């Protein structure tokens, strides 16, 4: 098992100012970091990659799509733009040495029609992700698609929908990234959903129900850790937690003592349950 820390805990600005944070992440005992790709200019990431290499930290990447990058838009130009945007994120992932690009980018965050996804929207997403997966394969990177809860996304908002989606994409470089925060909202049994996804899962984000320190809230952690063992998962386990530093998360109160406390307590909790 390898342990990672998602850098969104420190907000959306990912640049050289985070170098002391990377040093602390390494000192605490993490094997790597999740780097959000909001800047899709590959040149932006060369210095960051150098620092990761100096510290011996591995890296996987995440990205999202907003209203201007919507893969299920009825506008063909928007869909083409979104595919190009995701290919640029993959180029940045290559610079960073990542083998996975993860996120809910099969559709746009916070964009709704007031209706369920149509068969046409579903097919646009399948076709778009299949093209992106082809490009990812050429870079030896695997997509890790994520479902979000119903308040953030409508194309896939539960495990069954995302499993069906990935199966229909039917590409060896298109897998699932599983996030316990959204599962805690949408699933009747998180562990059963993880077992159903099985070896489609290529990355796991452990996130508390309030986005604070894992183990301090009401997620069914016993069920989560049992499922991880049941499916014989042995890849990345990452802590995803947010604070007031990430405005889009709408967290306006202090959820934990400090980032360092969250990392130390969270990592100890996870290791104690997976040992």
From TrEMBL:
SUPFAM superfamilies: Xylose isomerase-like (SSF51658)
Source species, domain of life: Bacteria
Domain Xylose isomerase-like TIM barrel positions: 22-272
GO MF annotation terms: isomerase activity
UniProt keyword terms in alphabetical order: Isomerase
Protein name, entry field: Sugar phosphate isomerase/epimerase
